[in-house]
């Protein structure tokens, strides 16, 4: 039994669903941020799987892997800025609970 | 053998991803996320993306997660107190997730050739060399743009963490 593209896409989709469920259900802003990272990684897994699936001249298609490289770089920058925003928020409000932050709520 | 290892690491990753969502303690969530990312790195290696697997361990499981743990400990977050969970939120969240999985199953069923094993790699796989060649030829401009982005992010973080924003 060999692994197939469908197996990889299934695992990636389940990981994305877990991340999405976490973003919708959790109330701690840092845990929500971690679940966002899970969703980014699910997209990366599917990109790597497609890159491995499209073999050209006996090599994987590296365009998918370049995309993953850039996503990881941008995600690292995003985490740095996002956590700085969370620290600034905590300084202003002394909470990381999203239901306590309602200034913009209609 | 490959298939057994693939499913082992996939289940490990998904299990610890669930642990991220269901743990009440943010530190436990962050540590589960590290294990989940390590499992994902194993999957990348299994898909012959060695370089991506390496930077997954170095950047994600190393740098990003240390940053998360650092912030959690800096803010001294305690175990989340149980608050009343609204039924609407839970039902809505579950509905969105179930609808997404159903949609995805429909799409996966239609991928042409998706149920065949991956095609074999016949050329010698110099993974890092190939990635580097691509990065500095076809993707040279995006590579430099990403460098500028990282600089902007660094400056942004310094400005954000000043005591008073002016």
Structure described in brief:
The complex is a heterodimer of chains A (106) and B (166). Chain A has helices at 5-25, 29-53, 62-93. Chain A is mostly helical and 106 residues long.
Overall number of domains of chain B: 2
Number of strands of chain B: 0
Number of strands of chain A: 0
CATH topology of the largest domain in chain B: Four Helix Bundle (Hemerythrin (Met), subunit A)
Q: What does this 3D model show about the protein?
A:
Chain A has one domain: Helix Hairpins (Orthogonal Bundle), CATH 1.10.287.3510. Helices cover 74% and strands 0% of the residues of chain A. Chain A is built from 3 helices and no strands. Chain B folds into 2 domains: 124 residues, NADH-ubiquinone/plastoquinone oxidoreductase chain 6, subunit NuoJ (Four Helix Bundle (Hemerythrin (Met), subunit A)), CATH 1.20.120.1200; 41 residues. In chain B, helix 1 packs antiparallel against helix 2. Classes of the chains: A mainly alpha (106), B mainly alpha (166). At the A-B interface, helix 1, helix 2 and helix 3 of A face helix 1, helix 2, helix 3, helix 4 and helix 5 of B.
Helices, strands, pairings?
The complex is a heterodimer of chains A (106) and B (166).
Chain A: H1 5-25, H2 29-53, H3 62-93
Chain B: H1 2-22, H2 26-46, H3 50-75, H4 87-109, H5 127-136, H6 140-160
Helix pairs in contact in B: 1-2, 2-3
Question: Can you give keywords for this protein?
Answer:
heterodimer, A: about 110 residues, mainly alpha, Helix Hairpins, about 75% helix, B: about 170 residues, Four Helix Bundle (Hemerythrin (Met), subunit A), 2 domains, 6 helices, globular
